[in-house]
What we know:
This protein is an alpha/beta fold. The protein has helices spanning 9-23, 35-38, 41-46, 58-70, 81-87, 89-97, 126-131, 144-156, 202-215, 233-242, 258-269, 289-295, 300-308; strands at residues 2-8, 27-31, 51-53, 74-80, 104-108, 137-140, 161-164, 169-172, 186-188, 194-198, 220-224, 227-229, 246-253, 275-279.
Amino acid sequence: MDIENKKATRESYGEALVMLGEENNDIVVLDADLSTATKSDKFKKKFPERFFDMGISEQDMLGTAAGMATCGKIPFASTFAVFAAGRSYDQIRNSICYPNLNVKICGSHAGVTVGEDGATHQMLEDISIMKALPNMTIFSVSDDIQTKWAVRKASEIKTPVYIRTCRAKTPIIYDENESFEIGKAKVFGDGTDATVFATGVTVSESLMAKEELEKQGINIRVVDIFSIKPIDKETIIKCAKETKKLISVEDHNIIGGIGSSISDVLTENYPQKLYKMGINDRFGESGTSSELMKKFKITKDDIIEKVLGE
C-alpha cells in the first residue's frame, strides 16, 4: 500500500468513464448538476454528445437512464449517494431493478467522509437500501485501481449495478496487475489473531492497523469486501474458522451495512461473534473527514483498540 500516493475514488470513476467511452460508443453518462463533484465532467469534456446533464432532477435522471438502457445504451448515472439511493429509490426499484435493466449508478460522496457537507449529505444507508433490491450488484471501492476495475466490470454485466465512491482521498492499495472477481473478497495476510472485514475508505485504515499490530506480535488478516452483493461467503466462513476474533468496519450505518451481511452469512453457516464498527444508528455531523472518522471510531487506532480489547 502506498500511503503517500492518495487519490479519491470519485476521480478514478471519472477517468474510468473516459477510458470506456473511447472503447464503446454505447456508453452514455448522465449527471444531476454535480458533474464537477462526481467527476463525470471528464467524460463530458471528451464526449459531449454522449453526456446528459439532467439538472437537479435525480429521479428524472434515473428514469431517463432506464429508457436509454431499453434502447441498447449502457448508461452510467452519477450523483451524490444521498440523492442516488435516497431521492431516486422509487425509480431504481420499479424502473431499473424490477425490469432488470442495464443501468449503472454511481453514488458518490458516500459516508461521513463527505465531511463538512454535514448530516444531510452524509449517506449512511445506501448499502442497506441497495442490497435489498433484487437484481442489484453492489461494489464499494477502496482505491484507484479497484474503482477502474469496478466501472469496467459494471459495463460488462447486463444487470443494474451500484458503485459507491467517496470524496476523501485514499492510499493506492493495489497494483496495475491486480485481479478482482465479482463475489470474491481480497484477503491480506493469513494471521489467526483476528480478521478485520472492511470496505471503501476503511480498507486502508485496516491495513495500517495490521502493520502496527505486527510490530506488537499480533497477526491479523484484512478482508476487503469490495463486492458487497454478491458477497464472498466462502472467505467469511474460512476466516471465522481460522481466526480468534471477527471485526467489521465501515463508513456506513452498522444496521444494514457489510457487518449485517457478514452476520447473515455466519448465522446460516458458522455461528460466530462479530464486532461491528461503523456509524451506530445515528446521523452524521459537520466536520473534516478525519475528525469524523475519529469521532465515529473507524480509524486505524480504533481498529487496533478493538483487536486488542476484550
